[in-house]
Amino acid sequence: MSLALSVGSLSVRLGARDVLDAVSFELHTGEFVGLIGPNGAGKSTLLKAIMGFSARDRKITRDGQPLDELSPNVRARTFSYLPQEREVRWPLTVQSLVALGRAPYRRSFSPLGEADWRSINCAIQTMDLEELRERSAMELSGGERARTLIARALAQETPLLLADEPAAGLDPAHQISLMATFSQLAQDGRTVFASLHELTLAGQWCDRLILLSDGRIVADGPPGEVLTAENLATVYGVRAHISYTEAGLAVIPTGLI
Amino acid sequence: MITTGRSDWLLISSLSLVVGILFVLSLVTGPAAISFLDSLNALFTGRAGAASIVMQEIRLPRAILGLLIGASLGLSGAALQGYLRNPLAEPGLLGISASASLGAVIAIYTGLSAVFSLALPLFAFAGAIIAVLLVRFLAGSGAATITLILAGVAVTSFAGAMTALALNLSPKPISALEIVFWMLGSLKDRSMTHVWLALPFILAGWMMLFQVGRALDALTLGEASAASLGYRLDRVQALVIFGTAASVGAATSVAGTIGFVGLVVPHILRPFVGAHPSRLLLASTLGGAAVLLAADVAVRVIAPERDLKLGVLTALIGAPFFLWLIFKQQREVT
Known about the structure:
Chain A is an alpha/beta fold. Helices cover 33% and strands 30% of the residues of chain A. Chain A has one domain: P-loop containing nucleotide triphosphate hydrolases (Rossmann fold, 3-Layer(aba) Sandwich). Chain A has helices spanning 43-51, 72-78, 94-99, 114-126, 142-155, 172-187, 199-205, 223-226, 229-236, and strands at 3-14, 17-28, 32-36, 59-62, 65-66, 79-82, 160-164, 191-195, 208-213, 216-221, 238-245, 248-256. Chain A has a six-stranded mixed β-sheet with strand order 6-7-8-3-9-10, with helices on both faces. Chain A has a four-stranded antiparallel β-sheet with strand order 2-1-4-5, with helices on one face. Chain A has a two-stranded antiparallel ribbon with strand order 11-12. In chain A, strand 1 and strand 2 form a beta hairpin. Chain B is mainly alpha-helical. Chain B has a single domain (4-333), classed as ABC transporter involved in vitamin B12 uptake, BtuC (Orthogonal Bundle), CATH 1.10.3470.10. Chain B is 78% helix and 0% strand. The longest helix of chain B is centred in the N-terminal third of the chain and has 35 residues, at 50-84. Chain B is globular, with a radius of gyration of 20 Å. The A-B interface holds A 48, 51-53, 72-73, 75-77, 79-83, 85, 87-93, 95-97, 99-101, 103-104, 106, 108-109, 111-112, 117, 136, 149, 152, 156 and B 1-2, 4-5, 85, 211, 213-214, 217-222, 224-225, 227-232, 270, 274-277.
């Protein structure tokens, strides 16, 4: 597997607090990596720092080239980013929102081209939004809005996709189809890096998990090695029942320690 | 498929038609009793004596300024609402109108405007530019939109206080009256000089504002998403506030403060463009021109003898609309 992104000793201070403390890891092409950790561990900050929103002093490289040297447009063709806040301001239709993902490929004032429409339609189909195409964003449920915004990120068709809690608020069927979509993207040679709270979902679908706690990486490896009773106890402070089912790893938190 | 092109084409061409009709209506409305055909003849041939002077030197600049200023207010209102993602935003929010007023007041107060008539618009424009530089300095480039709003409120309040001080200390009642009248906003007795003075800045402002359409669309998803789509938000902010300062600053410096057009017009037109901030820009430009031309015709028709001020009329109509807007928003939220 070739290297998709290399993050070297990334630190972020917000106010007096070290939110991220010398975090280093690598992402490879074709990998679906889950970012897990308790609230306030620094998951969102890590994703934002990769996007260049918080950290100024970053050693993040792609193909040996520091990210800060990429032009905003090249970066937008390389990374798509799905923020945790599912913000939609104006009552645009679902289709129009998904079409925003094509922005990096469009010249000013030019209409959407054929390739743009292929990506948009594909993203709409993947996220099961066909029937909602013409629906106004203000009339969507929380889960429908989440799927619309994921479709927007998919329409951007970037080699790397960073998603901040994409599965939150989705029903089980759409959670599974989302994870299957990300997994398929990875198999197609892209890299997906998503923060997740549902440990079972993360354990079953991700190729690799990074466990973050207090701004440091506690564990980084295959789900079976990261989701251990010991890690869950020290990082989350919970007792958990961990079992291997036919479908894969299942983690059921059973009580506080 | 999105039918963007076609439906907008219909909207844009109807708005253009309305603007054209109102422009002609503005040309043929006035105290001098000249018939419709005579007035157009006088305008184009220039051989109709007094009628030609009335048409070319009084009514034509008035109609052109109505068009340019209304368009500037509509466009900058749409751009600011898109950028700030706030339907209650309007050009006055950045302190541009209040500071332009202050500049004009200084010109009147010091008596400079009596000596050199262009001192007033020049001072007003300088006020607008200083205001916007101050707002950007206070808010910082790439700052959160809420900081920008707060900086605008601070500058507006300060400019308002200074204007009040000038009125308070005004040595002659006549200059206080002149200040008040100027602040009410009007297109009466403007010349082609005013047009030439404002035109370059207005056009420069439009060029800046029309560039940000796509970025405003992306901002629908919030600042982080817009940045991830490749837009440089510091550049977008600079284009929006300097574009507004140039166009609305120039507009205010020749016509005084005309409120509510920039607030109301984008609102009315938003549903017709599928709420796309980018498509709203052109529609709102034309809509603003139509509304201001109509209002300027109305002040001449309603009270030809009393010199009803344009800014008074737009506020009279705009304020109730604003109230309705707030109630409607509240209903949507609850």
